[in-house]
């Protein structure tokens, strides 16, 4: 009997996509489904960067340099300068999406059975890359009560073992929308230096920081060897399908090792690199409109949610996600019920159960993640659906309110 | 002290790219370098498939389905039919190049420390993916004397252990150009069924089979669960930079597990999928011209090589590579010397030392791989360079000729 591998068995299916068949069934019944479940922005991809591909003079679409086209890496040096990050073209390795940057980081820095600490709830696909690399994810819990701030350093200290090699942070955070403060980033630096840990910093949502200062891990001084930045153009330019990211580090040994993994897969996508290069030439004002739009959506979403009885949603400082606590028995059941059994005026809403974002079993049962990737009108309609649904959901429970007025807009 | 991982240390640098700095130095001195070292074809990417991208109406470049766009997978079902492979859209998983298909195969089917048998010389990047997956490559040696035919089954039997889980073949072969016969493919089937092994079949060069019948691993009957096909559009449509491949299997458990790895990285490149879809609509006659061109080049190359004293080059049945035995002390030294110290009329040639394609240390020292990816005129000029170089190379040795008249064109 042929067997699949142990990691093939352990590999978690996408918690975000597991509800898709229920959504498809609902749509076949003629129900309109508002998708707040995935981080696929509806913002237009800048036409100028698609035009760059259209206008490119290509006779042979050749492999690029394994680290990505030199011309693109030089452009990225300019881009990073605009966000206060000093880096050279030889410290940037172009990847196939942020995903590949994460995989390269794990493969390059961590041995099988090494441990990586990640504040939960966290981006679920870190689990997948950890399984691929044979690495153990050790979650420490952040809490909705304080808006998912960085857990206290003592929580990190408690779980650090001889096998701990790295901390992963996503800033601004997916799924919580939390924006780490300078103080929190400095706390991460202190613990990384003290325990000799890598700091893997996923900054996919850099451009979408709304309240307070954005602090990159590469802004921190005195820890050049520790930081690996995992980046992507997916959200920055609403170009998720391009599959274009970057692995950025000042640690030469790490860069050189990651480069060997990059050489094995030959090169990152060629057409996407043309887009990426053109994107750096967009005017600085380009981000004003999407950012204003996301802020308006966030404000609407958070207000609507907190006005629903028994619901609590801290105000996220960045990205385009919010986590809400709902008066429900089980978020997986609730999200499935929304698609299978509920509709109002032939409409319903699709949410991501928070359970998939926690590493600790049992957590997230009363929480959902909402991606505000729809326009204000649709978002408002989706909130109407959710409000009605919570009134009639059979598994409704009265939760003790955790509302913290300061956390609310 | 921060350390990189063991696999980061073990990861081999690209043997093909390690000579690049010497080539760059040569070019700076004004020397023209004929690149026969890499499989980057000079054949034009079909304008129609680039036009498909130019004409695509894209408002938001979204993530595609993790298995690739359904429309593209349906098209590929048609394509595979034209090459005699019956497969459904749900047995095709679109990947980022053939590279990712190989990685998914290793991660999905093999545990760390499992062994995979590969006839050597083999595509060097298999080593890289094996290190990434913690898998051990066990080479069995094929020989230039018989044109690198499949080693006898007894050679496989000798190295099979309880840890052996798979065989990898590349057909037509990179780096040897060898095209496996039906009899050889059937022999692989017998041994896979007997020992319960996966057959990973890399068929990147399918369209370029010149002598004899092309037999896909998916043409073999009675072993549906064993076969994983690793495919790519890179060479088929001269679109290496697109990074578009496919993982194809009738084994549902393997497919489902690979799909979880695919979900973790979200989706394959979006613009490339538009190209791939358009490519299936190219007329069947599209391949006539590149194939005729490659055959003409092969004929020239093999004839020129075998006319050089002390050189032997078997006639490859497919792909666009040839392996030649040269009267030299060490192929690594020779290839470096060609770039560093040799030139004739301000020209030299860049070749790939065969040592990088062998898993057994010490093999390949008298062999080089030549990729016939230049037009006939340049190829002829490159052969002039090589002929002169062999006359004056200080490390020239007289080798016992292994010429086999039947193997020569």
TrEMBL record, chains A, B:
* InterPro entries linked: Aminotransferase_I/II_large, AspAT/PAT-like, PyrdxlP-dep_Trfase, PyrdxlP-dep_Trfase_major, PyrdxlP-dep_Trfase_small
Residue ranges occupied by any Aminotransferase class I/classII large domain in the UniProt entry = 33-347
Domain of life, source organism? Bacteria
Q: Does the record carry Transferase as a key word?
A: yes
Q: Is Transferase found in the keyword set?
A: yes
Q: Which UniProt keywords apply?
A: Aminotransferase, Pyridoxal phosphate, Transferase
Q: Which cofactor does it need?
A: pyridoxal 5'-phosphate
Give GO BP annotations, semicolon-separated: amino acid metabolic process
For molecular function, the Gene Ontology terms on record are: pyridoxal phosphate binding; transaminase activity
**Which Pfam families does this chain map to?**
Aminotran_1_2
Q: Which family does it belong to?
A: Belongs to the class-I pyridoxal-phosphate-dependent aminotransferase family.
Entries under NCBIfam families matching the protein: PRK07568.1 (NF005744)
Designated name of the protein: Aspartate aminotransferase
What is the taxonomic lineage of the source species? Bacteria, Pseudomonadati, Bacteroidota, Chitinophagia, Chitinophagales
């Amino acid at each position: 009997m042929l067997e699949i591998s142990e990691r093939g068995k352990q590999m978690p299916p996408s918690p975000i996509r597991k509800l898709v068949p229920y959504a498809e069934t609902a749509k076949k019944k003629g129900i309109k489904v508002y998708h707040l479940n995935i981080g696929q922005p509806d913002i237009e991809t800048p036409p100028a960067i698609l035009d760059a591909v259209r206008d490119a003079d290509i006779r042979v679409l050749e492999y690029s340099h394994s680290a990505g086209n030199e011309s693109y890496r030089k452009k990225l040096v300019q881009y990073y300068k605009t966000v206060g990050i000093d880096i050279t073209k030889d410290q940037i390795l172009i990847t196939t999406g942020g995903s590949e940057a994460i995989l390269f980081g794990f493969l390059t820095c961590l041995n099988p059975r090494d441990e990586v600490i990640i504040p939960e709830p966290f981006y679920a696909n870190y689990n997948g890359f950890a399984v691929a690399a044979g690495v153990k994810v050790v979650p420490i819990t952040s809490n909705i009560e304080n808006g998912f701030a960085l857990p206290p350093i003592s929580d990190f200290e408690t779980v650090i073992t001889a096998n701990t090699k790295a901390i992963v942070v996503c800033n601004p955070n997916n799924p919580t929308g939390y924006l780490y403060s300078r103080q929190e980033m400095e706390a991460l630096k202190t613990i990384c230096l003290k325990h000799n840990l890598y700091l893997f910093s996923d900054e996919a949502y850099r451009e979408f920081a709304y309240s307070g200062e954005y602090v990159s891990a590469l802004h921190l001084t005195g820890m050049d060897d520790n930081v690996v930045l995992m980046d992507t153009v997916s959200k920055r330019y609403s170009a998720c399908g391009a599959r274009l990211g970057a692995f950025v580090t000042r640690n030469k040994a790490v860069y050189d090792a990651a480069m060997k993994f990059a050489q094995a897969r030959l090169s990152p996508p060629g057409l996407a690199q043309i887009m990426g290069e053109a994107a750096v030439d967009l005017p600085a004002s380009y981000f004003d409109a999407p950012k204003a739009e996301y802020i308006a959506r966030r404000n609407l979403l958070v207000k609507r949610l907190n006005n629903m009885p028994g619901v609590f949603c801290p105000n996220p400082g960045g990205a385009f996600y919010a986590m809400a606590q709902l008066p429900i028995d089980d978020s997986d059941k609730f999200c499935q019920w929304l698609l299978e059994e509920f509709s109002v005026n032939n409409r319903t809403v699709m949410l991501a159960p928070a359970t998939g974002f926690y590493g600790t079993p049992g957590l997230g049962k009363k929480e959902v993640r909402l991606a505000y990737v729809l326009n204000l009108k649709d978002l408002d309609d989706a909130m109407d659906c959710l409000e009605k649904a919570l009134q009639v959901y059979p598994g409704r429970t009265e939760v003790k309110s955790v509302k913290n007025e300061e956390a609310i807009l």
